[in-house]
Amino acid sequence: MILRRAEVGPGPQLLLISLGVLVCFPAAVDCFVGLPLSTKPARLWPQLLLLADNATVPPIVRRVVPGDQCDRHCVPGDPPLTCHFRWKLENYATMGSACWNCRLGNRAHCFHPQCITANGLERGVFAINRRVPGPPIHVCKHDSIVVDVENQLEGLGSTIHWHGFHQKATPWMDGVPMVTQCPIPQDTTFRYQFTAVEAGTQFYHSHAGFQKANGHYGMVVVRDPSDLNQAHYDYDLSEHRIIIADWTLDMVEKWVPGIQTDSMRVDSILINGRGRYFNETTGTRADAPLTVYQVEYGKRYRFRLISSGSQYCPFQMQIQNHSMLIISTDGGTVQPQHTVDTLVSISGERYDFVLTANQPPGNYWVRVRGIGFCDQMRVEDFAILSYRTPETAIPAAGLTVEQTLAYPTEPMPTYDEPYPDGIVFNHQTAPCYTPNDTYICAADLEAYEVFRDTGLIDAVPDRTFFLGFHVIEANNSLLFSDRGTSHYATVREGFNTIGATNMISFVPPSFPLLIQPELIVDENAQFCNVSHRPAYCTDDHLCFCTHRMKVKHNDVIEIVLYDTAEVRQKFYHPFHLHGHRFIVTDSGSFPSDILTDQIAYLRNLRTVRRPNAHCPPYKDTQSIPNRGYVRIRFRADNPGFWLVHCHFEWHLADGMGLVLQIGEPDEMLKPPANFPRCGSFEPPVDTGGDAQGTNGTVARNAL
Asked: Where is the stretch described as Disordered (predicted)?
């Protein structure tokens, strides 16, 4: 699309577009939007036009289209679009009134557009447009994403984090409450808008409270017309998305802080919001539709997977009699070198793989189970991979073919009939990087040479940080005293835990740091870190404060993340870095005799045991081995305030996180002038004067 500015004198100017469309600029005035949008008046905002008066060469003006029209084949050289979505957040219910008689066995009613079946049981949820997961977003690289989020949640603020998008041009769109924005108040609308620079499979979810665990999550696909792996698949279908989430029988707030007579647990696993609750006592499953993936024999399909867990379960996925060729992790393209039979992922990770439909046509189980810490819960669920054949194309009465397939007639395998592991990717006990081992780990993947950042790989880091993740048993006499903290989790009985990093439990600031940096008036008093703690904290005492690490813009940063647990168990933390991607340069487990002096041990590991790959892949979420460590490296090239945290919902809420400040506030991009602001309101206590605080003069003069 070619633009030139018409010389029309003062006042609103006109842009002449080669398609013959007139658009008014620069004021937000009523204009006629040209075909193919509509011929009705519409208000176009300067932000969407992305055109500035002082621009030497006007950038491309994007056509504004409804978001679902952006799900298209992406062609090199095609002009980008502005994709406008409208979302409503609200309290809702699974198997509720919108499902009519679904719970009574009328299967046709289960497919009402606003019916959320989940695991087949009734439950309160937080829905986006009455969907769980929320609406998918499919765009092309360099499209502009605009999402109007209307918050109708009763009594709750909210935000949406765009997991995988670095927001270099729009850091105030990262969606972290009290770090990059104010929570969106009830009955208000907040407009997120940013450019889809990072291609691949990305992830959105609420970053407020436990809304993600109750249903606020979804997929963002940014297709790259120049994808280096496109020769390895025939189809990249929008319906071939796999979003895995854990699910509880109750709203998860029941478990935070929790009750003494029961422990939090995973009751079901949802695949694209569908599953069937299994009652192990009765041996019965709920009758609810499953997710169906249809394929054609002989074709190769790109599948996109998101691990959207909130609790402690890694997810193990297998596709009966089929293997998976890994081609991407966390949105980053990797060389197609590893074909696996079992894929293990943890909360926040994304993987793309190619499935070749090379088995005898029929129906096959897509099998996902919670493993590791959740082995004892014996929870798994299923979807269906169905080959299109005349036999599978016969619908049941009142149902479509796909709806019929969602109720398979074949019996499900029992939990005690596991599939063979075969080649396992990301095995939960894999040491990784041990010479000559047979495990395949995420960082064993290899990026293409074109993505190799030699300067980052070979650099001597400017700063190195050691971050120990702690789950601490709370001192109940302190926890329930006047000095007690507001965040903790009850595991069972009187066993309560608090999350921390370097013995600091994160307390969010009282204002969004990026938006209102002028309120940072005393850094020593407002922030803390491992070398600067409040006076009441000793080296071995748990601190509650706003944990901040500060680095210079463009420094090369190395962070060694390690698990401080003293006992080996099937449990490990997923770590997520906002605003950046990183490479993993080392990973391993501590020797059994290293219990308390982990940092000394890590400092003495002088030789970085890099992955076998010449070009390490880029990640933004990485698991830390139990009683082990991960060494990551990135370039701090995105000034702002960025959250660093465990991606388990409960651990972040209990304080396992911190803020990374990159650069000084004057190096950070400034938000729009009318961007929402918030903070505490604590005026002087009225001692008898008037409401305006005039120390009573007006009131006395009126007597």
From this structure: 681-703
Q: Which of 323, 289, 265 is nearest to 112 (CA)?
A: 289
Q: Which of 242, 358, 394, 247 is nearest to 304 (CA)?
A: 242
Q: What is the three-class DSSP state of 322?
A: strand
Closest CA to 161 of 516, 645, 679: 645
Q: What stretch of H or E contains 404?
A: helix 401-405
**What is the sign, positive or negative, of the torsion defined by CA atoms of 389, 391, 397, 403?**
negative
Q: Which residue has the tokens 């950070």?
A: 668
Gyration radius (Cα) of the chain, Å: 26
Helix or strand run (H / E) with residue 653: helix 649-653
Among 2.60.40.420, 3.60.140.10, 3.90.190.20, 1.10.20.10, name the CATH number for the domain at 454-667: 2.60.40.420
User: What 3-state class would DSSP assign to 449?
Assistant: helix
pLDDT 10s digits, 395-447: 998 999 999 999 999 999 999 999 999 999 998 777 676 666 677 888 789 99
User: Could you tell me the pTM of the whole model?
Assistant: 0.89
Give the ranges where 406-493 is alpha helix by DSSP (H). Answer: 454-458, 476-479
Is the distance from CB of 204 to CB of 158 less than 8 angstroms? no
Listed by start position, the domains of the chain span: 64-426, 454-667
Regions of the chain short of the pLDDT cut 70: 1-60, 431, 433-437, 538-540, 606-613, 689-703
Q: Tokens standing for 311?
A: 């609790």
Interatomic CA distance for residues 268 and 378, integer angstroms = 10
- The DSSP bridge partners found for residue 489 are 497
Q: Which of 469, 474, 510 lies closest to 645, judged by CA?
A: 469
* Whole-angstrom distance, CA of residue 672 vs CA of residue 467: 34
Distance CA 535, CA 516 (A): 26
- Residues 241 and 193: beta-carbon distance below 8 Å: no
**Can 64-426 and 454-667 be said to share one CATH topology?**
yes
**CATH class given for the domain over 64-426:** mainly beta
- Name 171's Cβ contacts closer than 8 Å, sequence gap at least 6: 180, 514, 579, 638, 639, 640, 641, 668, 669
pLDDT at 187: 98
CA trace torsion 325, 327, 329, 333 (10° rounding): 170
Report the b/e string of 601-629 with b at 16+ CB within 10 A: ebeeeeeeebbebebbbbbbbbbbbbbbb
Question: How buried is 180 (Cβ within 10 angstroms: 0-12 exposed, 13-18 middle, 19+ buried)?
Answer: buried
Is 234 buried (19+), middle (13-18) or exposed (0-12) by CB count in 10 A? Answer: middle
Extract the runs of DSSP E, i.e. beta strands, from 636-702. 640-646, 657-662
Q: With helix as H, strand as E and coil as C, how does 161-188 read?
A: EEECCCCCCCHHHCCCECCCECCECCCC
